[in-house]
Each structure stands twice: as C-alpha cells, then as structure tokens.
Amino acid sequence: MTIAMQDVQLALSHGSLQVDLWEIEPGQHWMIFSAYQHYGSLLGQLLSGERMPDGGDITGLPERVGVVSLAQQQALLDAELEQDETDYIDQIDYGHSVEYLIGECCRDSDQVEQLLEMLDLEHLRNSGFRQLSTGETRRLMLARALAVDPQLLVLDDPYVGLDVVHQEKLSALLSNLSEQMTLVLITARESHIPDCITHIAMFSETSATERAGNANVMTLSPGMTVAEFTSHPVLRQLEALSAERSDAVMALIRERQQLFQQAYQTQLTHALSQEQPQQGHAPLVAIRDGKVEYFDRLIFDQVNWQILPGQHWQIRGPNGCGKSTLLALILGDHPQCYANDMTVLGYRRGSGESIWDIKRRIGVVSSSLHMQYRVSCSALEVLLSGFYDSIGLYDQPSKTQVQQAREWLAILAMADEERTPFRALGYGQQRLLLIGRALIKQPALLILDEPYQGLDFVNRKLVYQVLNMIAEEQLSQLLYVSHHPEDSLPAIRNYVDFVPDGEGYAVVVSG
Ligand SMILES: Nc1ncnc2c1ncn2[C@@H]1O[C@H](COP(=O)(O)OP(=O)(O)OP(=O)(O)O)[C@@H](O)[C@H]1O
Fold first, then answer.
1. Considering all CA atoms of the chain, what is the largest pairwise distance in Å, rounded to the nearest integer?
2. CB-based contacts of 114, cutoff 8 Å, min separation 6
3. Whether residue 311 sits in one domain with residue 188
4. Do 259 and 200 share a domain, yes or no?
5. Structural domains of the chain, count
6. Which atom of ligand 1 is closest in space to residue 368's alpha carbon?
7. To test the ligand 1 pocket, which listed residue (321, 368, 448, 487) has its Cβ within 8 A of the most ligand atoms?
8. Are residues 193 and 323 in the same domain?
9. What is the pLDDT of residues 450-494, one digit of tens each?
10. Among the four residues 26, 79, 277, 443, which has the most C-beta atoms within 10 Å?
11. Which pLDDT band holds residue 213 (cuts at 50, 70, 90)?
12. Can you tell me which atom of ligand 1 is nearest the CA of 367?
C-alpha cells in the first residue's frame, strides 16, 4: 500500500514544516537528506506517529513501524535511569541487560537469539544498558526496532557511532531488509547511501514571496534519484554556506583567543612547571602502563602514551575497544583513573589535585556527556555552563560571559532558541550547543569523542572545518575520535590505534 502525506504541516517555534505531497510506493526506499536543521528527524517522527501533524493527511501507514533514532535512545536512557536501583542494592545498577531490552520487544526467545546474532550483540547479552559503548548502544537500538517485525522501518542517522565494519554490515542488512519492508533513512552523510535507496528528498526553505506571508516554511522537495542527488548543485551550495559560517566562527574564536591564551598559558606554564620544573616541553598528558579492567574483562593494558605540547591526536579502533574509556581516564571521569599512573595538564593523578583544576582547561564533547546533560536549562545556559564545566548552570555568570554566550548562539544560528529548554531542542541542535559549550572557553585541550552525532550536513561540515582550523592554528590541542574516514582531520598526524590482539586489543601509539 502507498504511504502518502498530503498538505501536511507542522508548526515549529520559528516557522513550519510543510509536505505538499509525498508518496512512498511499494518497493521504494527513501533517503531524507538532513541538509540543514532537524526537519528530516521531524518527518521521521511524523511517519512513526511520535508526532501528530497540525494539518493535512498521512495515509497508508502500516500497523508495525520500527524506529531507530537518537531521540529514542535518549528516551530509553531516561526510562532506564528512572528505574535505577543503585541506591537500594549493594552495587552499581547498570540498567537492564541487552538480552532483556531486546526480549521485551520480541515475540519469543528464538527471535531474541536471531537479533543478538544479527547485530553482533551475543557477547554483550548480559551487559547493562549503561555499560554499552556508543556503537554497541546503536546496535541494540537497531535490534529493538527490528524486533517488532516492522513493515516500515524509519532509521534516523542509523550509521552514527558504528565502526567501519558495522557500517558495512548495516548496509548489507538494509539491502536484505529492503526486500521485506519499506525503508526511510534520514541522514546527513551524503557518502552513506545504501544500495537499496531508490529515492532521495530534502527540505528547503520556501521564500516568503513564494508562499505569501509565511517566512521560514521548510518544504520537502520532490524525490530524485541517487545520481540526480549526488550531482545536485545544492550540495556545493551547502558546502559553501558551511565554509562561510565556519569562517565566521573562527573569526569569533580568534578575536577571543588573545584574551584566553594569556590566561591559560599562565596557568598551564605554572601547572607544568610544578610537575616538571626542568622541562620546557613537559607533556600535557602522560600515561604510564595504563590499564582498565572489569571483573570479567580486560579492556586495555600497557598503554604508554604522551601528548606533547602542540600535538593533536586521533584515537582509532572498533566499537567497544576502549577509546572512550581511555578518554574518561584523562578526564578523571573513570573510577579506575586513580589506579593509573598518569599526569594530566601538569597534575599527577592522586596527588591531591582538584579535578576541577584539570577540567577547567579541557573542553569535552561526547555521547556520555550528551547523555548526562539531562537537567532543565535553556540553550543560553548550556553555553554558559561551559565556563564552569557544569551540567546545568549553578553560578551567576558575568555580563561579559552572557554576551559571549549570545555571540556563540548567534554564530551557531540559534539566537532564536536562547530561552528554549535544552531537552526541547532536536538532538542535532543539542549536540551543536554542546560543541559551543566546549569551545566557548577556548580550552588548552579539546576532547571530541564522535562530535558530529546528530548534526545536519551544514553543521557537520562547519564543525569539521572549525576543528581543523583550531588544530592548524594551535588554538587548542585536539584528542579526536571518529569512525568515518571522511572525518579525518588533515591537521591531525598522531594516532592511538587499538588493534586486535588475541581476545582483546593492543594499543599502538604512532606520533
Ligand atoms: N562497568 C563495565 N563493566 C564491564 N564492561 C564495561 C563496563 N563499562 C564499559 N564496559 C565495556 O567496555 C568496552 C569499552 O567501552 P568504550 O566505551 O570505551 O568503547 P569505545 O571504543 O569508545 O566504543 P565505541 O566506538 O562504540 O564508542 C565496551 O565493550 C563496554 O561494553
């Protein structure tokens, strides 16, 4: 049966989304390209029934619709945290197990086994939800969506967080699934178009003159073929727009840099001289024989790694190998950080240092931070919280800080959202704010663990260009994780690689 949207409208805080006519015929599989903002995700929510339109008709929707989205992942985390029993039991409650979370959506245990195998989750069946790495979580969400035997599967950014092997496996899986169900894929990655996609559409702004009296109406384009899409001039136009905007962001960063650099250099030199007074080139981070081990599993050991002044590093390796764990050690967020011999920004771990002295000079973007950012505060307050390294805002910011945060909001094209609660924003807008929060204080060290999650095309390119320029101009030192080859930053030439070794991974440092 044909799925159709006709004259569908959705009112948004600053404009509206409009679908004049969109028909998905049987056998068709659509990609909605997230060019700009989160309209693709909103369309996915209309299809899945998570949102109701303010006008128009949606017809032909099948009974069983499966959904994979970062918003759903956030909702599952919220539900899991509500049931957290850590305070009542004698151990940390990591949430329901992978097997349980898949099982609660399945018809029987055979289907659970089938999905565990299909999504490469068998070895994690007993792991709790909050123990999972980013890619492992993503595979769990895919398994839950498939468990309902969907006739329509809506995949919002399904490749996010998956390592290269699992990205390829997902493309092959989608090809198989396309023979049994209708697929609608929402993505900002023009390089990830699975073979099964037959049509591509995107939202574009309809001018006020075209649609009398209504500015900011985002309208779904007619469908095009993959070939028409890849040669479409709009991709080049969007790239030019992101380049223009990244220049504006860099102008703001450079303008502020002198001010920040003076303060940070003084603090950094002071801290480093306390640690190794004789050395002019003391490392920002040094880990000696680093090790993290859980009761049933060694994640890594024998990690010897130094980050020297001026160096930028990319950490590479498959899902679950320990990249985020290594970064959490540096940040002091991992319970085993004090069992390790390490020095961070001049402070020897366990020497009575304040964790805030270290965090003050580090900016972070990661899924784990995004998941923890669950407090109710406005978009402006999220940016301001970057000055205090807090989740939420508990200090009274100065007038200068408020002005700087407003400048950042404007440059991120989010000035209209100043008072919007963080959690009411789309996932991509939330992520963009968290990136601004990390950059606003222009830290000595920037930790970017898969920073692009949820970003639309224009903002992904913008952030990519800004990060590369920050590294090239030595405005901060970068520790960077991304699974996508196209995200490699030319300015990064040092690598920590997790390479398979027996049952685990060996860590190879090449700088
Ligand atoms: N408390 C825990 N007990 C046992 N295993 C854990 C615990 N916490 C995390 N893990 C496991 O540690 C491994 C490393 O996780 P980490 O988040 O560092 O992986 P990653 O390399 O960043 O993966 P991804 O690419 O998916 O983000 C994962 O397999 C995860 O399931």
1. 75
2. none
3. no
4. no
5. 2
6. 17
7. 321
8. no
9. 999 999 999 999 999 999 999 999 999 999 999 999 999 999 999
10. 443
11. low
12. 27
Of 235, 267, 285, the residue that ends a domain is 235
Helix (H, G, I), strand (E, B) or coil at 343: strand
Work out which ligand 1 atom sits closest to the CA atom of 483.
25
pTM of this structure: 0.91
Which of 192, 213, 235 is a domain's end point?
235
CA of 321 to the centre of ligand 1 (A): 7
Cα–ligand 1 centroid distance for 315 (angstroms): 14
- Find residue 122's DSSP bridge partners: none
Instruction: Specify whether 187 is located in the same domain as 265.
Output: no
User: How much is the ipTM here?
Assistant: 0.98
Ligand 1 pocket, Cβ-based, cut-off 6 angstroms? 127, 131-136, 161, 163, 294, 297, 299, 317, 319-325
Q: How far is the CA of 299 from the centre of ligand 1 (A)?
A: 8
Query: Among 53-67, 218-232, 276-290, whose mean pLDDT is lowest?
Result: 276-290
211 and 105 housed in the same domain:
yes
- Distance from the CA of 319 to the center of ligand 1, in angstroms? 8
Give DSSP secondary structure letters for 455-486.
--HHHHHHHHHHHHHHHHTTSSEEEEE-S-GG
Residue 104 structural domain: 3-235
Residues 6+ apart with CB under 8 A from 279: 272
pLDDT-wise least confident of 109-123, 283-297, 315-329: 283-297
What is the CA angle 146-449-376, rounded to 5? 80
